[in-house]
Write a structure and sequence with these properties.
Elements (H helix, E strand, L loop, with lengths): L2 E5 L12 E5 L4 H13 L2 E6 L2 H12 L5 E5 L5 H15 L4 E4 L14 H29 L2 E8 L10 H21 L4 E8 L24 H12 L9 E4 L7
Parallel strand pairs: 2-3, 2-5, 3-4, 5-6, 6-7, 7-8
Antiparallel strand pairs: 1-4
Helix pairs in contact: 1-6, 3-4, 4-5
Length: about 250
């Protein structure tokens, strides 16, 4: 059973929530910024990440804004346990209107020298975990004939960069996965958005799987991407931006 902490909601000024959102990778970077933006807009939140301490602190902070916020510590790279953990969390939390798949990892290194275990790890977190998250929320969305799935991809899905091959392949797979879900589920009232971003100044650049020397001050801020994600979520139910690309004004770094 994954660790979780639930923060009861305070009263909204209008007495209503805009809906509920499940956000992965919520303890840092784009996921955290998106959680803050959604909470400020009035969405109830089910937040998932590996980092238990940061996640629960964030849930408590956002709950104080007047929304229901629950943090659930889940390792999405552990494919054998993802579905059961997520389904149990949704059963406790309640129906999910919006799924934001922000969790992912960066990886640099030439394809020709990449260990198989590293390749499998990148694909497990960047592609398979999204597949599993989608499977976990689809039954509830189908039963209510509505739902929105937002997948965070990358411009690396369309443009090849030296030493970013595995990452690019995983994000290209995510783009195609999004298209397939949209094609299969649109008749069930489920919309799918893919957001491909350029470089974003997140902790990804500090991980031991990424070796790159870019000007982080020129990158997009996570808050900018989060506001873009929020705007797609606020569209009327009869409209969808199927694929959106956002990059720094200076272009690809």
């Amino acid at each position: 059973m994954p660790a979780s902490r639930k923060i009861p909601p305070s009263d909204h000024s209008d007495g209503h929530s805009l809906g509920s959102a499940l956000i992965t990778g919520a303890s840092s970077g784009i996921g955290e910024a998106t959680a803050r933006a959604f909470a400020q807009a009035g969405f109830d939140l089910l937040l998932m990440a590996r980092s238990k301490g940061k996640l629960f602190t964030l849930a408590e902070e956002l709950g104080a804004l007047g929304v229901k916020a629950e943090g659930v510590a889940v390792d999405l790279a552990n494919c054998e346990k993802v579905n059961a953990s997520v389904e149990a969390a949704i059963a406790r939390f309640g129906p999910v209107d919006i799924l934001v798949n922000s969790a992912g990892m960066g990886y640099t290194g030439p394809i020709g020298d990449m260990p198989l275990a590293d390749w499998q790890r990148v694909m497990a977190l960047n592609v398979t975990s999204v597949f599993q998250m989608v499977q976990s929320v689809l039954p509830g969305m189908r039963s209510r004939s509505r739902g929105l799935i937002i997948n965070i991809a990358s411009i690396a899905a369309q443009q090849a960069f030296p030493n970013w091959g595995a990452y690019g392949v995983s994000k290209a797979a995510l783009v195609q996965l999004s298209k397939a879900i949209a094609a299969e589920e649109s008749t069930n009232g489920i919309r799918v958005v893919t957001l491909s971003s350029g470089a974003v100044n997140t902790p990804l650049w500090d991980t031991n799987t990424v070796q790159a020397n870019f000007d982080r001050s020129a990158m997009l801020a996570p808050e900018t991407v989060a506001q873009t994600i929020l705007q797609t979520a606020l569209l009327p139910a009869n409209a969808v931006i199927s694929h959106l690309t956002i990059t720094p004004s200076v272009g690809a770094l």
